[in-house]
Amino acid sequence: MIKGRLIAVVGPSGVGKDSVMQGVAQVLPEVLLVRRVITRAPDLGGEDYDAVTETQFQKMAKNGEFAVHWGAHGLYYGIPQTVRHQIGKGGLCLANFSRKALRAGADTFPNFMVLNLTAQPETLAARLGARGRETASDIARRLAEAEKSLPIGLNIQTVSNDGPLDQTIARVAKLIQPVSI
Ligand SMILES: Nc1ncnc2c1ncn2[C@@H]1O[C@H](COP(=O)(O)OP(=O)(O)O)[C@@H](O)[C@H]1O
Ligand SMILES: O=P(O)(O)OC[C@H]1O[C@H](OP(=O)(O)OP(=O)(O)O)[C@H](O)[C@@H]1O
């Protein structure tokens, strides 16, 4: 029997969290990508998300619609409660996560695992510029927050994404096996 789990993908802005998640979902069809609720303007690309206003987000949070939620970059992000059902059914779920919210994630989800992606600062700057989703001042703020420590005592796998994306995807696909019981 397979136990489901949530794998929180973390790392600095521009490291490749969304790209790696999408690539892994292509090579491992059983992987489910978590669709986050974000107070970001709709259709800015990078990931599929539910765009809501701040008022809508606060209402959803108050109604208990998020398993975990946090604020960052002047936005709010929520992981929907529905992810719990997917995990309960044995789903291998991947979510773009905040390093600040990892402790809450570990307290919320069974078999919680962290995929920590890394890249050199100059790589991050080049990638954020090329992505073009944020303004230059937003990019500067994101780069200033690149270094953050991770909580101790969690199941953390660290993988460099400095090299070719396909190489990272292949490494991650090998690491994120479901939990057998
Ligand atoms: N290994 C890689 N090599 C080259 N470009 C990459 C690689 N990984 C991601 N990118 C590019 O870098 C940019 C940032 O990636 P993204 O997945 O949006 O990062 P994050 O979600 O961590 O902010 C995107 O334009 C993406 O196409
Ligand atoms: O606490 P931190 O680990 O610094 O993370 C803060 C936020 O940054 C990322 O957001 P988002 O996907 O909007 O930005 P990014 O693609 O530039 O990383 C991540 O998903 C968190 O929501």
Give the amount of beta strand, in percent.
25-35%
Averaged pLDDT: 94
Rounded radius of gyration (Å):
16 Å
Distinct helical segment count: 7
Enumerate the spans where pLDDT stays under 50 for 5 or more consecutive residues.
none
Silhouette:
globular
CATH class: Alpha Beta
CATH superfamily: P-loop containing nucleotide triphosphate hydrolases
- The succession of helices and strands, N to C, reads EEHEEEHEEHEHEHHEHE
Q: Tell me roughly what share of residues is in helical segments.
A: 25-40%
Major sheet: 5 strands, parallel
User: How many discrete domains?
Assistant: 1
How would you write the strand order of the largest sheet?
3-8-2-9-10
Ligands, deduplicated: adenosine-5'-diphosphate, 1-O-pyrophosphono-5-O-phosphono-alpha-D-ribofuranose
Termini gap: 6 Å
Pathway: Metabolic intermediate biosynthesis; 5-phospho-alpha-D-ribose 1-diphosphate biosynthesis; 5-phospho-alpha-D-ribose 1-diphosphate from D-ribose 5-phosphate (route II): step 3/3
Catalytic activity: alpha-D-ribose 1,5-bisphosphate + ATP = 5-phospho-alpha-D-ribose 1-diphosphate + ADP
Keywords: ATP-binding, Kinase, Nucleotide-binding, Transferase
Protein name: Ribose 1,5-bisphosphate phosphokinase PhnN
Kindly list the characteristics that best describe this protein.
181 residues; alpha/beta; Rossmann fold; four-stranded mixed beta sheet; binds adenosine-5'-diphosphate; binds 1-O-pyrophosphono-5-O-phosphono-alpha-D-ribofuranose; ATP-binding
Q: Layout of SSEs?
A:
Elements: E1 2-3, E2 5-10, H1 17-27, E3 31-33, E4 36-38, E5 49-51, H2 54-62, E6 66-72, E7 75-80, H3 82-88, E8 92-96, H4 102-108, E9 113-118, H5 121-131, H6 136-144, E10 156-160, H7 165-175, E11 179-180
Parallel strand pairs: 2-8, 2-9, 3-8, 4-5, 9-10
Antiparallel strand pairs: 1-11, 4-7, 6-7
